[in-house]
Write a structure and sequence with these properties.
With 226 residues, the protein is of the alpha+beta class. Helix content is 32%, strand content 30%. Bound molecules: calcium ion (CA). Calcium ion binds next to strand 8.
Length: 226
């Protein structure tokens, strides 16, 4: 007669204790439930996990997009940065002249290609993989240069050399090498401030390095008066 209430008390105590344990180690309990129970229990622990993964991927993508936007904004607002005002090229797709699509003039002014890929708002050479091609660019103000930013928008990675011309017309190579640029992005080359002033830049590409069309959207010269 007196045993039953004790058993009930013990049972309730166990339920209470196990309840505390469950709340303090939810993951462990969920995993064991998933392993032993029928379908509804197995789906429960999986769904939040995949939702977390999706949310995490979305967060990463949003942060990368924000970082990209900040970088674009910083470059466009750089008070020491200038965009080209005149351009000539070794060749142009379809022999494009004036302000036609893919002409050398498409490299002048601020960037205006939004997506990686073939775009008439960028310059392209006459043939996709012919080899050495170049852009000769003029800027509004002669400066002591510190950096060059080449915005590549298609077939990125084929720039091999950047030269600056001093005011007497002498050429100075400030970068030569393997262009690491991929996708829509800048080849950013920093160097010690030049002793001379420059308002003319030559960008050389080896279009055979990256198969297909290699397009340049815009080129920024960075430098100061002094
Ligand atoms: Ca452009």
């Amino acid at each position: 007669m007196k045993i039953y209430p004790k058993l009930i008390c013990c049972f309730l105590l166990l339920v209470f204790l196990s309840g505390c344990k469950k709340s303090s180690s939810t993951e462990e309990t969920s995993k064991s439930a998933a392993g032993t129970s029928a379908t509804p229990a197995t789906t429960a622990p999986v769904a939040p996990g995949s939702a977390d993964a999706a949310a995490s991927a979305e967060t990463t993508a949003k942060m990368a997009a924000a970082e990209w936007a900040l970088k674009q904004d910083e470059i466009k607002r750089d008070s020491n940065g200038q965009w080209a005002i005149q351009a000539t090229a070794s060749s142009s797709y379809n022999d494009a002249q004036g302000t036609a699509g893919w002409s050398a003039n498409q490299v002048t002014a601020a960037p205006n290609v939004d997506k990686y890929g073939d775009d008439p708002a960028a310059w392209a050479s006459k043939t996709p993989d012919g080899g050495i091609e170049w852009l000769d660019l003029k800027y509004p103000k002669p400066v002591h240069a510190t950096e060059m930013r080449v915005r590549e928008s298609c077939g990125s990675g084929s720039v091999i050399k950047i030269e600056l011309y001093d005011e007497q017309g002498g050429g100075h190579v400030v970068w030569q090498g393997n262009d690491p640029t991929t996708e829509l992005n800048y080849l950013m080359v920093k160097f010690p401030k030049t002793t001379f002033r420059t308002d003319r830049v030559k960008v050389t590409l080896a279009t055979n390095v990256v198969p297909g069309w290699n397009e340049i959207d815009a080129v920024q010269l960075v430098g100061t008066d002094q």
